[in-house]
Amino acid sequence: YTDTTVLFARYRMAPVMVLWLALCLTGTWAVEKSNFKTCDQSAFCKRQRALIPGESPYRALLETMELTNTRLTLQLINDKNKVRLLLELYRLQGNMTRVKINELKPLKPRFEVPDVLVKEPTTEPMSLLSQDENGVVLSLGVESQRVILSARPFRLDIMEGREVLMSLNSRGLLAFEHLRIRKDTALGSFCLSFKLLVTPFIPLLPKQTAKEDGKDEEGMWEETFKTFVDSKPNGPTAISLDFSLPGVEHVYGIPEHADTARLKTTENGDPYRLHNMDVYKYELYSPMALYGSVPLIVAHNTERTTGIFWLNAAETWVDISSNTAGKTVFGKMLDYVQGSNEKPQTDVRWISESGIIDAFILLGPTPKDLFAQYASLTGTQSFPPIFSLGYHQCRWNYNDQEDVQAVDAGFDQHDIPYDYIWLDIEHTDGKRYFSWDPHKFSSPKEMLQGLKDKKRKLVAIVDPHVKIESSFKLHDEIQSRDLYVKNKDGGNYEGWCWPGSTGYPDFANPEMRELWAQMFAYDKYEGSMDNLHIWNDMNEPSVFNGPEITMIKDAKHGEWEHRDVHNLYGFYVQMATAEGLIQRSGGVERPFVLARSFFAGSQRYGAVWTGDNIAEWEHLKISLPMCLSLISNLLSSDVGGFFNAPGTELLVRWYQAGSFMPFFRSHAHMDTPRREPWLHGLDNTNLIRDIVRQRYTFLPFWYQQFYHSHKTGEPIMRMLWLHYPKETATFAIDDEFLIGKDLLVHPVTEEGVTSVTAYLPGKDEVWYDIHTFKKHNGGQNLYIPVTISSIPVFQRGGSIIPKKLRVRRSSTCMEHDPYTLYVALGNQNTAEGEIYIDDGYTFNYEKKEFIHRKISMANNIISSINLAHDAHFTTQSWIERVVIIGATKPSKVTLKAESKLDFEFDASVSLLTIRKPGVNAGEDWTITLK
């Protein structure tokens, strides 16, 4: 994605490719929106959006109801066309409810998403409380929770006591386009003319076509966008359902969009779109689809946090409306003064092109509960190797082995630590992945060994499109085993991507995923070593000459169309790659895999990032809500911006923000000036060095956060309301964030500012500036002067954060170094924290080979106690110092009430530093202040 002349010269693409790129990429200062559909240009979205609220044709046939201990089923009928649906209702363990709706007797099976759920959810008993001709009431068994099923029109209300938590089809926008035979085909005409004759052969066809939905609308059986024709052999298959959230004004989620974390009403524009696509230089503050899709919405008010997980992998649009949208603050105050009893409400409507309705209702009630519920369904964040939490240096592309060695040496020369250097597509032999350019990277093992000797690593890109060339072993293998995606006529689907003419492996096929995983074996990926990790780019999938730069929807994955599985493609690519790295180590080592496209459950397989951003201040600013909205925890944006050249101030500010994101990578386009950290003048080199080195001091804290997230499913990078759920001032804040619960970060995202205002939550909390140790009360907006040398970061009073202050060339070099504990006292002069230690890169922690300890301070005693008595691990690391923030000066400090310890006290900032306790970090110990 560069100046077209340069691009054409580099890739020498065929004339048709040159023409396409000239049309699509000329003037790429911003995304070409005309390449991507609006709702009006998407036939099914336009059809569904035209439905009128309050005119639902569906009613429940109560006489068909069957209730077992764990499952309710009944039929719904559309009174306009007499098509019947099957409703299934489940109460799930962990305060969740599942609602499935499918055709009662479809002409052929409809797609149901596999592999995303970690297991079939455990059900719990439901009981019938009452029933009459208007509906039924079921007990959900949790306190006073129950489901009210109304028959005419069909509606579900989930209640707790007298409060409605959520309603389904309350606006009457349930829609289910049933599979049917096209009227203008020979079979269709025959069936319509001779219904009695075909009744034995096509179940329910007479009833389903007796009162058909009227004439076929444009786009139901074939749809054209630009020059691309979607044949739609199954006809219209869209589904839709609305959810109402009484009492809710704030909803979040459904990444990925370049927009605020709090979702906006879509009533006067397009819905939010979930359709994984290669949208380089994307537009900001837009509901346009981007690289990934997670169909999860989180709703929050001061009383409860709830969620809706819509398990559907087809193109999906999400409409959001609110009865308070557009009201000014004065209007809301007037309502209050006048005693208006209108309750805030947000309505969410999901519209998907195909599949079935499979909705999980997560009932919280707390934010922690909700994330545990979602994790129980789709899994927790994979536990990354600790070195992946260090600094990553990337560029499209480092030229050759000598360039890699020179950049590596530059970090040592300028005393800047890093863990990974990255290679983009130019390192391959003619864009044949799993290969090396024989001239520029002729000795990859020598290069990798040089990095390994310094305890550093390399990431190489392996994209999920395969050069069609008979001499390419991977292509020959996939073709011989018939594992490519097919076109609608049964031949192998071909598109254009970086190699030119390209085949797309069918990753929805387990056999293809197994073959892909095997390609990472050392004897197959020649030149690879154990310090080579992987980057999956372009996995939306990106198809340069496809509609919306992706795959045509009528392509085939076995029996399913691509429209059914589209948003799963990138998920499957990352799954297969992660499995390959695990297999190559014999199941011993944790993988590191970065992917651009993702779906619900992708967090189980590695890291994601926000894609091809631009070196502009607004892109730095939007990176915060984008990351806060992502469900994956190992995430970031490209530091510095991928396109264009950042000014030095922007670059430094992006490094500062990126250093406090879970995944910390600088990346740049091939046509931007080189931007290694030492290329922007001595002053900026010093600033960036300090930023990167500070990141390394926090690695024990980061690693502990990832262990916690891996076990619980809680996000690492968090909006403030997750810990302050009743504090309404936090609900819309997305320009600052928490790391875990103990660090608050407010990056500087505007040019030339000399101050920012940060909100410190918690009226009963105190916060300490980590640079000055100054104490501030919570529950206030704090004016903070800033310079280019730092951004506001605060440690929560009552917390203990472990750090390592001896920064070395990489994280692995710091493995056995000692810890410094930063104890920030709360208002009660108490504090708590943890230390987690294992070998940093294997799965041995699953065998209980780790140290997990609680560090606490109360009554002037600091102690370390074991949290995992059945675990076993030894460490060489020891406690080098304890820094107590907000302390008073003691007369004496002793270890285990015996050994006297040296200490220093700075009265100007109430800072007590206890030096060299000398105790092993994995043992019990106590320090007493007198």
Automatic annotation (TrEMBL):
Query: What CDD domains does this protein map onto?
Result: GH31_GANC_GANAB_alpha (cd06603), GH31_N (cd14752)
Q: Which InterPro entries does the record cross-reference, listed alphabetically?
A: Gal_mutarotase_sf_dom (IPR011013), GH (IPR017853), Glyco_hydro_31_C (IPR048395), Glyco_hydro_31_N_dom (IPR025887), Glyco_hydro_31_TIM (IPR000322), Glyco_hydro_b (IPR013780)
Q: Name one GO cellular component term.
A: Golgi apparatus
Q: Which keywords, in A-to-Z order, does the entry hold?
A: Endoplasmic reticulum, Glycoprotein, Glycosidase, Golgi apparatus, Hydrolase, Signal
Gene Ontology biological process terms, A to Z: carbohydrate metabolic process; N-glycan processing
Q: Which reactions fall under this protein's catalytic activity?
A: N(4)-(alpha-D-Glc-(1->3)-alpha-D-Man-(1->2)-alpha-D-Man-(1->2)-alpha-D-Man-(1->3)-[alpha-D-Man-(1->2)-alpha-D-Man-(1->3)-[alpha-D-Man-(1->2)-alpha-D-Man-(1->6)]-alpha-D-Man-(1->6)]-beta-D-Man-(1->4)-beta-D-GlcNAc-(1->4)-beta-D-GlcNAc)-L-asparaginyl-[protein] + H2O = N(4)-(alpha-D-Man-(1->2)-alpha-D-Man-(1->2)-alpha-D-Man-(1->3)-[alpha-D-Man-(1->2)-alpha-D-Man-(1->3)-[alpha-D-Man-(1->2)-alpha-D-Man-(1->6)]-alpha-D-Man-(1->6)]-beta-D-Man-(1->4)-beta-D-GlcNAc-(1->4)-beta-D-GlcNAc)-L-asparaginyl-[protein] (N-glucan mannose isomer 9A1,2,3B1,2,3) + beta-D-glucose; N(4)-(alpha-D-Glc-(1->3)-alpha-D-Glc-(1->3)-alpha-D-Man-(1->2)-alpha-D-Man-(1->2)-alpha-D-Man-(1->3)-[alpha-D-Man-(1->2)-alpha-D-Man-(1->3)-[alpha-D-Man-(1->2)-alpha-D-Man-(1->6)]-alpha-D-Man-(1->6)]-beta-D-Man-(1->4)-beta-D-GlcNAc-(1->4)-beta-D-GlcNAc)-L-asparaginyl-[protein] + H2O = N(4)-(alpha-D-Glc-(1->3)-alpha-D-Man-(1->2)-alpha-D-Man-(1->2)-alpha-D-Man-(1->3)-[alpha-D-Man-(1->2)-alpha-D-Man-(1->3)-[alpha-D-Man-(1->2)-alpha-D-Man-(1->6)]-alpha-D-Man-(1->6)]-beta-D-Man-(1->4)-beta-D-GlcNAc-(1->4)-beta-D-GlcNAc)-L-asparaginyl-[protein] + beta-D-glucose
**Superkingdom of the organism of origin:** Eukaryota
- Report the pathway entry: Glycan metabolism; N-glycan metabolism
A molecular function annotated in GO for this UniProt entry is: Glc2Man9GlcNAc2 oligosaccharide glucosidase activity
Query: Which residues does the UniProt record annotate as the domain Glycoside hydrolase family 31 N-terminal?
Result: 88-319
> In the Enzyme Commission scheme, what number(s) does this protein have?
3.2.1.207
Q: What Gene3D superfamilies does its record include? A: Glycosidases, glycosyl hydrolase (family 31), Golgi alpha-mannosidase II
One Pfam family per UniProt? Glyco_hydro_31_3rd
**For this UniProt entry, which residues form the secretion signal?**
1-30
Cross-referenced PANTHER family: ALPHA-GLUCOSIDASE, NEUTRAL ALPHA-GLUCOSIDASE AB
Q: Give the similarity note.
A: Belongs to the glycosyl hydrolase 31 family.
Give the protein name, as stated in the record.
Neutral alpha-glucosidase AB
Organism the protein comes from: Takifugu rubripes
